[in-house]
Amino acid sequence: MGRSVLSHFLILSNAAPRFSSSLSCRIDASRFLRRHEPIRHCRLPVGYNGFAGSRCYCSSSVSEPVAPEASSSSVKKRMVSGVQPTGSIHLGNYLGAIKNWVLFQDMYDTLFFIVDLHSITLPYDAQELSRVTKKTAAIYMACGVDTSKASIFVQSHVRAHAELYLLLSSATPMGWLNRMIQFKEKSRKAGDENISVSLLTYPVLMAADILLYQSVFVPVGEDQKQHIEFTRELAERVNYLYGGRKWKKLGGKGGAIFKVPEALIPPAGARVMSLTDGLSKMSKSAPSDQSRINLLDPKDVISNKIKRCKTDSFSFLEFDNPERPECNNLLSIYQVITNKTKQEVALECQDMNWGIFKNVLTDALVDHLHPIQVRYEEIMSDTGYLDSVLAEGARKAADIADVTLNNVYQAMGFFRR
User: Fold this and answer.
1) Where are the alpha helices (DSSP H) in 31-172?
2) Cα–Cα distance between 327 and 131 in angstroms, integer?
């Protein structure tokens, strides 16, 4: 997350992922009411272009586990991901999440949503929210999300998100929220007069988004790890307080109410940094538009931003030098946008100076983004079609979400009609 890409990039399954026989997963009930045990991280390889054949590295109790393959089960796995509608969708959103969705939609049962409820946790423009929500959906589709393979919907159109958020809030200790780093950072930037309860409880809504669809894996960036830890602990707490025999006594099926998700570390190149500061993430909230490439930026704007972007005084280009964050960022952008390996880019650019490379990068960005921009204009011109896509996507998502929500209501003892 952070806020732009929830990192809400959730891979779901009706069956547990396939690991090697040496995997030992034990759930200790004593953990359910205390704060954070280290989460298991599944690391994706450099050059990752999908899940098939990926290696999965978890805790020390695991020996060479293997990530689930799309073809390993007759049950198609489900993936859910979302992006906030505030501001413009930029290159970081695209390379970090949306570009991979096009690959995933052929392998998984995919649902993508615009997380409009998250966008109101800080001051926002109510006159613009509806427009930018549709705009974001159109960009999803323009980037290659195929509505015959994937569902696209708006978060607030599936009421289960807000309902589960309230139910989970009742099980969330206040101390957990007070310790969240992002709340402290965002509240400091926003000022006391702009801090709302929704900003404090933002992690609970994110947890609801994840748990509602019984997530197994959640790809996250460094700034979202604490939120995934929070989600895991909250899932375990609810399972302990209301699941198992307690749920069964109320007429439920018993067992765990929620699956406890694990964090996936994103592939190289997914974390796109600012054009004006190679140590800061590319962000919608950055005050200068010069710091980011927006997906709808015209050719001349892209060219100007790349020409003016921050570089260094070295006469050659190289990856992975910690003293050259801007160089690594620009090379990584070029690598991912052209679908080349790091070795191929290093060889291609070994004799280039900054002037030549900036022209090459500009051409690659313009060539890649132009078809997206053309398709976006076509979709936005047919509002009836866009509305129907979002309505159908919300219906499909609600069918899935309502099952989880009804189980939670039952386990928590509510009288249901």
Assistant:
1) 91-93, 99-104, 126-142, 160-169
2) 36
Do the Cβ atoms of 171 and 234 come closer than 8 Å?
A: yes
Residue 313 backbone dihedrals phi, psi, to 5 degrees: -95, 5
227: number of Cβ within 10 Å: 25
Is the pLDDT at 239 greater than 70? The verdict is yes
Query: What is the rounded CA–CA span in Å between residue 257 and residue 239?
Result: 6
| Whole-number Å distance between alpha carbons of 230 and 227 | 5
The amino acid present at 358, given as its one-letter code, is K
Measured in whole angstroms, the distance separating CA 211 from the mean position of its chain's CA atoms is 14
Distance separating alpha carbons of residues 221 and 219, to the nearest angstrom? 7
Question: Would you name the residues annotated as active-site residues?
Answer: 186, 281, 284
Strands (E), 132-274: 150-154, 215-219, 262-265
Closest CA relative to residue 220, chosen from 280, 178, 189, 261: 261
Q: Give me the percent of the chain exceeding a pLDDT of 90.
A: 59
DSSP state of 156: G
> Three-class SS of residue 112?
strand
Q: 3-state DSSP call for residue 287?
A: coil
The Cα 64–Cα 375 span in angstroms is: 43
Res 162: pLDDT: 97
* Domains, the chain, with CATH or none: 78-269+383-412 (3.40.50.620), 290-381 (1.10.240.10)
- Which residue has tokens 């313009």? 366
- CA dist 180 → 115, 186, 207 (Å): 20, 10, 13
- Determine contact, residues 269/335, Cβ cutoff 8 Å: yes
What pTM did the predictor assign? 0.76
Identity at 252, one-letter amino acid code: G
Distance of CA 261 to the CA centre of its chain: 14
Q: For the chain, what percentages of helix, strand and coil (3-state, to nearest 5) are there?
A: 45, 10, 45
- The Cα–Cα gap between 32 and 270 comes to 32
Strand 78-83 with 41-43, pairing: unpaired
Enclosing H/E stretch for 41: strand 41-43
